[in-house]
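To: structure subgroup
Subject: Chain for Friday's discussion

All,

I'm putting the inputs and outputs inline so they're searchable in the archive.
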Amino acid sequence: MKKIYSVVFLLFFSLWASAQCSDLFISEYAEGSSNNKYLEIYNASADDINLEDYLLVSCSNGCGNSGLNGSWELTFIGVGPSKGNVDWYNTSINASTRGCLADDRVVFHKSGAFQNVMGSETWIEGWQGATADGCATPVSPFDGSKLGSWKDNGDGTFTVYGKGSHVGIPKPYNGGELSSVNDAKDSIIYEYVIDGDTAMTVDISIGGGYWRYSYKKVSNSFEYDNSFLFSGQTVKAGEVFVISHSSADATILAESDVNHNFLSNGDDWYALWRASDYSFVDEVGELGDDPGNGWDASGTTNATQNHTLVRKASVKEGAVWSTSSADQWEVKANNTWTNLGGHACDCYPAAAPEVQFSNTKYFVDENAGTASVEISIKEPSSVDATTVEVTITGGTAVDGTDYTVTSSTMLTFAAGDATSQTVTMNIVDNSDGGLNKDITLALSNLSANAILGADSIAEVVIVNDDYIVSDIIDVVDLDVDLSPNNKGVKYEVTGVVYGIDYDGNAGLSFTIIDATSGINIFNFVDVNDYVVTEGDEITARGQIDFYNGLLELKVDSIKVNSQGNALATPTVVTVPTEDTESEFIQLEKVWIADTTTVWPNNGNVKLTNADADTFQIRVDKDATTIVGQPVSYDTMTIVGIGGQFDNSAPYDEGYQIFPRYLSDIQEWVDRSSVSELVLDCRVYPNPTAENLTVLGTDRWATYEIYSVSGIKVANGSFVNNNLSVANLEAGNYIIRMASNEKSGVAQFIIVR
């Protein structure tokens, strides 16, 4: 489906076109060097046409010959009261008896095509308009000017399709005899018997009698055929469909709609058929003939070989080759494809030149130096030049500060010249940080002979290469919908990495936090080969982006400043909110509000609290220590990174917490119970790496160990006031001990 040669169709003209023009025909044919071959099909109608109802058939060096396939010559006619009985009338066909029938042939092509071949004369009767029965010029539609088709029904019968297609003489049909040419049938079924692949008897019942014909095969030299079925493609009114060889030149392939590797070598017949009624549409070449090199067309010898054929604009429908080859084609030199992709036809008025921008948006780096905007023309006038002016109508970029136009903005397309033209501007590389700048361009002052295309406005975006060095809190600039006002602005921020890479190996998605706030660092790909490591202090450069409510820095560079930096104590919050986005937070006394029993792989779990607030914990697939683990506690304390997923404005819902490790999910314990311990104890060694001993004469039965944020991390029973802490991470801890009615507490440090 390619370019249309008329932009505006008036109702009057559409009605005229549909009345005067057929639906499809072959508008262009090329047999060039190597595999530079194609066929172009044109829709001359006023309606879109689905090609599923069409078939492209071809014969190389003719077509097949087995069974019915081949060319048969009439030798006998008879008619009688019953099958095989020819008592009413019978005659052999020879020069002296109905001699004009002696050269009448029927041709069954392997491709499914059927031909009546009659020469200049055949037998004509009164019902066909003759004043007397005798030899005369064949009468349409029984004259063989249109191809038909045939089908072997597999039961001793065959059917010929196509109005006027017939075997023997055209008068008999199934159940009767014609009385007018206007009564021609679309299909007729015949009974047949073949004797030795060289002779054939054909019978047809007319209801109360039978006609019989005898034939001899006179041509048995056809070789093979190919066919091509279309698959759901549609050709719009006034447009073309291109079938090309898959190894054709790139210029051809750029216009091609589908590939077919059995295209002509110059001496191969091609025809377009309508499958629903088995009717002939159009052809190139002579069916059943092998011209050796190529067929002649429009006065050019071997025109179908090493030439391109373009159908003349005056042609409005397909035709048999004997008609079309006379004067319907413009024969062009080998490898000439300038008309490919569209067709000029008198069915539609000539198109006005159409001018538009080749692209509607151009991106140019601030340091690129220049930017060029391309303006294209379709169907340039062959007579008149076309002029158009490019004007600057707006944008955030300032003329003289961000850019200067260096070329003429008044463009002239010479008559017949389809070469695109450009407007060029210098881009100023300044030190202004912030958003990208843009320039809005429009086409105006168009000459009277032309029209503007759909793309008459274009935008040039100058991509800023300057970064604003900022604290993270100053990057947060949200509108009333909580989306960023500064999207696209480039920033440089420094912070400590918290948590893991939630995008795994596919790219980057992690959080950095500085003394002011936090932000998500993101890219679809890895940047600077950085491996996300909690505790790294990094400097990240990128531009502000936004994804489902989550503010992001789409990073383009990362520099590691230091490693092993201590993390801040998480901020205890009641629920995740906009303020907790990309912050290190802790939720206390929360529990699951759905049926989840196992932490999911890359999924959400609904949480609630004592105030009946609901929110989500997001277990990312990259949090490998959590995924698949059973939910161990009814009431939990959860530490993690605040997040959000809200796909519609205003972005004030979908707040989440992202735990990093399984240790971020602990049983909730009322911290007031820790503060009520009545006995201070001493433990040794302190700091320790593996074992801990409670000093003194008291003997303790059980213990519970808490992080400084109040999360219980271990519990168990003492053995002689000793316990192992080898499985705990380095940090500060509180141990609560109990025995009978006594309780005690101590603080200790684990080092690694």
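Points worth raising on Friday:
Confidence is low (pLDDT under 50) at residues 1-19, 673-677.
Helices lie at 11-20, 250-255, 321-327, 672-675.

D.
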